[in-house]
Structures are given as structure tokens and as C-alpha cells.
Design a protein that fits this description.
Elements lengths: L10 E5 L3 E8 L2 E8 L3 E2 L16 E7 L1 E6 L4 E5 L3 E4 L3 E5 L4 E7 H22 L14
Antiparallel strand pairs: 1-2, 2-3, 3-10, 4-9, 5-8, 5-10, 6-7, 6-9
């Protein structure tokens, strides 16, 4: 049996003032442990994906605060501490300050979304004058 924690994750991305994310591939799954520091509609990070939305499936659990998505039909779903969630393709994330969650994404889908997200994240960071430690472009969360 494999496991992951913040101390053992193979990937760590700090986006100062915005997010602190840890990830590890376990078998065919990418496990993400994410803490968010501000309220943010992350739709901008999915520009260039089909319908400009995340096309991955995610299973997860909110540890603290709240986390949400905007579905392709425009409906917003909010998940709060203690909620388990299943998210299907065709969404964009809505994160809130103080949110912590764990998400499980099929690794191939995580890689595909990362190919779209990371250039958008880097562009946003550059526009905002934010230095990303290491500027690593490993896998990324929702």
C-alpha cells in the first residue's frame, strides 16, 4: 500500500500568498494536498483547454474551510469542511482563503490539465510580479 503526506510528497509548489500544494503519483492516481490563502476564481488557469475548463475527474475531501467549482452549465457547487466530493470534467475551481483539501485525480488526466494550467499560472505570476520558488512545472491540482 502506498501513501503520501506533505513530508513525503515528490512535488511541492508554493505560489506565495495564493496556494501551497503537494502532490505524489501513486499508481494511476495523482494525490494532491492543497492549502489556499485567498479567495480566487481559477478559471483563468484553464484558458486553452476544451471549453476553457478542467477536463479531469477528481475525488476528494475538504479538510478545512470551503472549496468549490463552477460547472459547464454555470452552476456553482460549494464543498465545505467534512464534505467528500466527486467532480466530473467540465468545471473550473473556486478556492477560498483558509481552504485545505485532498484530491485524487487520474494521473494521465492530471498531466493533461497541467499542460494547460502551468503556462497560464506562470503568465499570471509574471503579470502580478510574483516569484515562484523553483518555478517547477510538475503536476498541478484542479
Amino acid at each position: 500500500m502506498s501513501k503520501v503526506s506533505k513530508a513525503t510528497a515528490s512535488f511541492h509548489q508554493t505560489f506565495p500568498g495564493y496556494v501551497d500544494a503537494y502532490e505524489q503519483e501513486i499508481g494511476d492516481w495523482t494525490v494532491s494536498l492543497e492549502s489556499n490563502f485567498i479567495d480566487m476564481d481559477q478559471a483563468r488557469f484553464f484558458k486553452g483547454a476544451p471549453n476553457d475548463q478542467c477536463q479531469a475527474n477528481h475525488l476528494g475531501y475538504v479538510l478545512k474551510g470551503k472549496f468549490g467549482i463552477r460547472r459547464s452549465d454555470g452552476v456553482e457547487e460549494i464543498f465545505e469542511a467534512g464534505d467528500a466530493f466527486v467532480i466530473e470534467p467540465g468545471h473550473t475551481p473556486l478556492v477560498f482563503a483558509g481552504c485545505e483539501f485532498v484530491a485524487f485525480t487520474p494521473t494521465e488526466e492530471a498531466r493533461q490539465q497541467n499542460a494547460v494550467m502551468m503556462p497560464n499560472v506562470m503568465k499570471f505570476a509574471q503579470e502580478q510580479g510574483i516569484e515562484l520558488p523553483g518555478q517547477d512545472t510538475g503536476t498541478a491540482t484542479m
